[in-house]
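Q: Hi! First time doing this. I have a protein sequence and I read that you can turn it into a structure. Is that right? Here it is:
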Amino acid sequence: MIRFVHPEYLYALVIVPLILLVFIWMAAWKRRALKRFGDQVLVRELTETTSRAKPVIKLIFLLLGLSLIIVGWSNPQMGTRLEEVKREGVDIIIALDVSNSMRAEDIKPNRLERAKQAISRLIDKMENDRIGLIVFAGRAYVQLPITTDFAAAKLFLSTIETDMIPTQGTSIGSAIELAQQSFVGNDQKHKALIIITDGENHEDDPEEAAKKAAEAGIIIHTIGFGSPDGAPIPVYRNGVQVDFFKDHDGNTVLTKLDELGLEKVASEGKGTYVRATNSNDGLETIMSQIGKMEKKSFGTKQFTDYEDRFQYFLAAGLFFLLLEALISSVKSKWIQRMNLFGEENRKNKKNQSSV
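A: Yes, that's right. Below is the predicted 3D structure, encoded as structure tokens:
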């Protein structure tokens, strides 16, 4: 397996086709100039010692040398062996509410963005655990299956928005059921589900779903984002707030944090409920509880012991550049001698025919 320490340096390879285009243009310009210079037979005799093949060979060596040096500059590395790295951790699925109510700004900048920031910081601190992402509103969807690829987790997290699920609502129960199906393995431990929501559930029975998940060995923690007093839901158009959500009677809708409901879900799931604030997102408290859980071992195969190989590319590149510098554009003496004999024979034949 090969990788580049500085892959951005490979963009310098664009110089190779540019040099080739300049060479082609110069060759065409030179032919046109020689045609305008004078009699073509005389021009050929005057340039008899100039090789036509050597400039092409020199160009090939030049392009090869530059290409190899640029590749070496980017520092290619080779993976020398494939080994299995043992990990001990917990499988964690984060179920994130993406309903419109998560746009409320009682937690700055708003509930959803603050939750995404908290999850991103959590991912940065993860080492041996595995993580999965579920998004839910009126329905639940797997955004990222259980993985150890934390970079992918952050990438998928960044794409989460409130308009990604067309069915609005807050179906916490369906998120719990989907998480139960998404955990890997049949063991009834080492699994934790963190639900981040404002808790306004009107779609199903999350407490019953939490009870069934707990029986399957899944610990459920809940984090409430929002204010019990409620906050309006802003409406944006082209990045500018134009109004607040209103009901059918034209009254501004207030979305309130349902702490009691989330406490019941956490209780049935044998976990902890934490209310997020502007100063504390609650994930540190939840992760300290998860840190006390029994860990399980799992292995992942990966290439290790990458070794630098830039020196081979640089050496080969310098070799081709040295060859290019040593090759002259003039024909070799033995080729000139062959041409000379051919020219003399041609003149002798011409003189004999004239006699």
